[in-house]
Amino acid sequence: MATDDKPTVLEVKNLWVSYATDDGPLNTVRNVSMKIRRGEIYGLVGESGSGKTTLARALVRYLPRNGSITSGSISLAGTDLLALSPGELRKVWGARVTMVHQDPSKAINPSITVGEQIAEMARVHLGMSRAQARHKALEMLEKVQLPDPESVAGRYAHQLSGGMLQRILIATALTTNPQFLIMDEPTTALDVTTEAVILDLVRDLLREYQTAVLYITHNLGVVARICDRVGVMYAGEIMEEGSIQRVFTHKLHPYTLGLLGCVPRIDIDKRDITLHTIPGHIPRPDALPEGCIFGPRCTFNDNTCHQTRNPLMEVEPEHFTICGRWADVEKSIREDFAQEKAIKALDQKDAPLVLDARNIEKQFKLRRSGLSNLFSWKPEVVRAVDNVSIRVRKGATMGIVGESGCGKTTFARCIAGFEQATSGDIFLEGEALPYSIAKRSKSTLKKIQLVFQNPDASLNPQHPVGQSVGRPLALLGNVLQSEIDQCVRELFEAVNLPADYVNRLPHELSGGEKQRVAIARAFAADPELMILDEPISSLDVSVQASLMNMLAELQKVKGTAYLFISHDLAAVRHLSDWIAVVYLGRLWEIGSAEDVFTPPYHPYTEALLSAIPIPDPNIHQERIRLQGSVPSAVNIPSGCRFHTRCPRKIGPICENEEPPWQNVHRFHSICCHIPLEELTAMQVPVASETEEEQQ
What we know:
By secondary structure, the chain is α/β, with parallel strands linked by helices. The protein has 25 helices and 26 strands.
């Protein structure tokens, strides 16, 4: 039965949502209509502030006190949700409508075992006895493929990993076999490998349960992978809507084209293109422009766009857009926005060496308490970083990838001196560095700067951001006090921020703007090495693209070496000249970005690449999934420490012997027992076009 032939579960017509404020009502969602059929996954995408979550809350009447639906209708399988009393609505929540949140730790009660929480859903909404509800809970834990359901059911939230908690939240949501499920950024905080497994699980379960799903995300690759249809939302309105195939391959709105142009590609990098960015910001609900609300940011706008605001038009069967110039958009291709050969690469062989880290190890001793400490012969240690060697040259970027808990950040902190390495050597421009930051000279401190995932960690909330940027100049720079203000303004200009932002407090800036300030602060000391630890992972795709372009341009101008840590392999591919793959504290593959993304791969690299969500429904990816979590760094598996999860394991040699390093060629090495010829024969490129697209 085709999806189009299935009954409509959710039907929304001309929905308006307003928030009451001291300055009057704000219409944050305007004139939205949509249908979601049984068994269909409807993706909702757009930048932060587009109104996605507000719309989702309005659909199930779960708005805050000052929020209200002022116009329109919402029908759930024939039930008018706007006509239900609060008591009737509570019976709908949990039974017919459920939700999976971005952060499962906030949705799961920490004081009750996870099995009891699932069982409670069954008792309250399905009327089951305690024995029946417990059996149902175990059945659902088995459905989401958690090992040993009996054991997991008896655990509390703090005893489980993020991936396991997200599975439990999915199990809880599906316990009542709801008609409608809302998933709000359910995989954003997960590793790329865990995300891939969860997405496969979601797709399979929803096919089985035939639930209608609204899937909210800013990750266009995830939408292409699991959704059937997509709505592109901007400033409270739907800009374009249609099937995944039509919207991704025949874009009819400049905003859709812009969002897809922001996404880095795995086949080309910063030397080939400058990522497209969308200028400006989403307008406030009380300051909407005349005519098309996307007009001020649109590269296609003309005089008619500023005068007319179109309704959704069906240009193709089941493919809608509000853009009156859709024919011009359809003719445009993504490469129109790209500047070919944008960044000229330095000759890697001739560039001087900035960082030379040799055989770095970092161990943490576990503190025991009570009798366990008395009867322990030797203390247990966490081998967080184990014999890692990395070199970075001037003007080059070394990307470090791997799952959470693999030691990426610990290694970076050892280089920066925030953690004292247990052994190994760190050379910066040929000078041996002490392990401790307290023992390093002021000139050394200038040369290494960090940018964190959370920019708030670098900014004093009580001081203007200009003061935060000027502080390194005062402490580390050879800049006169009278010149600091001018230098700060120049730094703001370098990171594309208006000069008057220097007087703003951090809370007055968006996440992307705060990250730009953090980068300006790092560059204030004119460093030789910049350590970037997940600097873009929590940002919108449009902001990510802008920051990546800026980092590439600043590197070109200043020649700074980057150590770029991320679980986003597409971003790593775009920015990095070299890539190091880390698993359980060890290095497993290292080479140029192009080589690491071309067979032969290490089996772990292969799994990471297979998990990348690519925003193109015509791209085929090999499905290689890693089961289980990264083992404990206290009890590291024998032999090849990846053998417990390796999809290419060849036998006892993997379990008992350390794998050797093999040179693919001079600048590309892989640590694996499998001969390179065999790896090449069994592997395929990370992504390839489908037969339909090739024809």
